[in-house]
């Protein structure tokens, strides 16, 4: 089945990052990709997204659906015939949306697992709770408040916000490549007040790294 390009508006996107030793990151990666080193290590993190109006491209926004989603990311690079590409490896995506679980990796890029997700957002502070149960043994509970506006020019921000291609396992286990095209890459640096993540806790060398909050960005996801 051909996967459909999807467009949506991201109301908020919280990127909580850590730096790990590239050798340790490599043990979490499939064949064909390798860790990308930035700022003294490899960026790993949680991407927490509030999505509105998700629908096939050229479909009216009134027909779109809204849902919350969480993903785990590792900065990677890989070679093709002409160049080296920097992107992210996404071992896991989670959502409470039945439609995203049913159609992800089939009608549109990205396989999703089921999770209970809660978001509190008052415009200045955001708090996320993600519970996937024992089947995934994943729990993320993070809160952040926006620091002064910041352009993502430092290496970690440029890497995690600039990644356009994401690799993730399909339903058959083979890697799928999805492309995300945002209308802008502006972000604010955030101070993370509290974080519990089984994913990040699985890296013995993880140390906190700059994290970011993106708001009100139109995006298109497509099969690359």
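^ structure tokens above, recovered residues below v
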């Amino acid at each position: 089945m051909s996967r459909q390009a999807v467009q949506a508006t991201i109301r908020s996107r919280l990127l909580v990052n850590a730096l790990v030793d590239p050798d340790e990151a490599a043990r979490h990666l499939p064949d064909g990709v390798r860790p990308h080193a930035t700022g003294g290590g490899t960026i790993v993190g949680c991407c927490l997204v509030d999505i509105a109006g998700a629908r096939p491209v050229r479909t009216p926004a009134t027909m779109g659906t809204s849902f919350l989603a969480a993903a785990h990311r590792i900065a990677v690079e890989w070679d093709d015939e002409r160049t080296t590409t920097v992107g992210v490896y996404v071992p896991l995506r989670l959502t409470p949306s039945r439609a995203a679980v049913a159609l992800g990796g089939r009608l549109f890029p990205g396989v999703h697992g089921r999770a209970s997700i809660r978001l509190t957002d008052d415009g200045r502070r955001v708090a996320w709770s993600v519970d996937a149960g024992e089947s995934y043994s994943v729990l993320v509970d993070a809160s952040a408040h926006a620091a002064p506006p910041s352009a993502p020019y430092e290496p970690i921000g440029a890497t995690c916000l600039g990644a356009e291609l994401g690799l993730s396992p399909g339903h058959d286990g083979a890697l799928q490549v999805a492309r995300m095209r945002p209308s802008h890459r502006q972000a604010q640096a955030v101070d993370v007040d509290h974080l519990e993540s089984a994913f990040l806790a699985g890296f013995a060398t993880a140390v906190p790294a700059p994290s970011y909050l993106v708001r009100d960005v139109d995006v298109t996801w497509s099969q690359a």
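The chain has a mean pLDDT of 88.
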